């Protein structure tokens, strides 16, 4: 019997590579052979997973972080394809002890990575979106990629109040000859009740007082992007990803796809797992929202489509609506072993995953 271990990250505790290996180690203790296939969805950890699955060369670049500080980061080059993780240039994790500030935080560093990859003659640029500290509608990204704006020299959320027009042609010229693909774990629109600011703004530091003003400014920005690109940006799925970076990428001709699906294609998931009996997958929390393009559901669906028998969900926390993930996931387990604080659970993440893998392995074996 062979079981696929395909875990996404347990944020703040264990990254997807270590989580997947921990479950595989547990399966080995139950004398079960496993296929190790870590997951990612475009956000933090996407580069590490892509490199694990298919190799490649990390290209080091100096870019601006969300508050304009010059940092060293990298993207992955696999032949003619460049894989960029926006979180490495514009992510919350880069802030350290600095406070969130959606008015100042800019995605310009992500645009600089795109420009570097394009000028390096990449024929395909995969832009992973997720984990950003920004709510700038991708204004910074476009400036970083070469676009010219009038009305403001602020390229964070504050710039959305003042920007008048944008000329995309310099950025489009830089990208000429390269296909831009957006890998995202959300399909939210840029505007509206479930738009970038309303849904994810509070995670970026948008306060109750800021909210109506920033939503109005984002509507203004959406109209400008629409005129510049000739597209109804606000109606494009995924335009609200990463504080609106999705909208900017779409304006540059980018096509939005679910990041988890792209990771399955990148490592040829189907051929690697076609003879496996079962699958163990999961992430830090699984609930009703997981069904909207999250990696565990995507991989479980793909596994069942190739004839897999059993798909097990393994998580730190089961939230409201998790039952809606059945099918394709058949059963759900939490890694917690008795009463335990969140801090203790997170500090023991790898151990708990290994123990759970062993017990699930014993169950599946019989």
So, CATH architecture of the largest domain? Alpha-Beta Complex
The level of helicity is 25-40%
Run of helices and strands: EHEHEEEHHEHEEHEHHHEHHEEHEEEHH
End-to-end C-alpha gap: 11 Å
Rg calc: 21 Å
What's the CATH superfamily of the largest domain, by name? Glycerate kinase, domain 2
The structure class reads alpha/beta
The pLDDT mean sits at: 95
Relative strand content = 15-25%
Query: What is the global morphology?
Result: globular
Helices, by number, come to 14
CATH class term of the largest domain: Alpha Beta
Number of domains: 2
Low-confidence stretches: none
Biggest beta-sheet profile: 6 strands, mixed
How are the strands of the largest sheet arranged?
3-4-5-6-9-10
The CATH topology of the largest domain comes to Glycerate kinase, domain 2
Number of strands: 15
Fold and architecture overview:
By secondary structure, this protein is of the alpha/beta class. It has two domains: 2-37 and 268-365, Glycerate kinase, domain 1 (Rossmann fold, 3-Layer(aba) Sandwich); 46-259, Glycerate kinase, domain 2, CATH 3.90.1510.10. The mean pLDDT is 95. The strands form four sheets. Strands 3-4-5-6-9-10 form a six-stranded mixed beta sheet, with helices on both faces. A five-stranded parallel beta sheet has the order 2-1-11-13-15, with helices on both faces. Strands 7-8 form a two-stranded antiparallel sheet. Helix 1 (16-29) packs across helix 14 and helix 10 packs across helix 12. The chain has helices at residues 16-29, 46-54, 87-90, 108-119, 139-144, 169-174, 196-200, 210-229, 245-251, 259-266, 269-273, 295-305, 342-347, 349-365; strands spanning 2-7, 33-36, 57-64, 70-78, 81-85, 124-129, 148-150, 165-167, 179-184, 255-258, 278-282, 285-286, 310-315, 317-318, 331-334. It is globular and about 65 Å long. The N and C termini lie close together (11 Å).
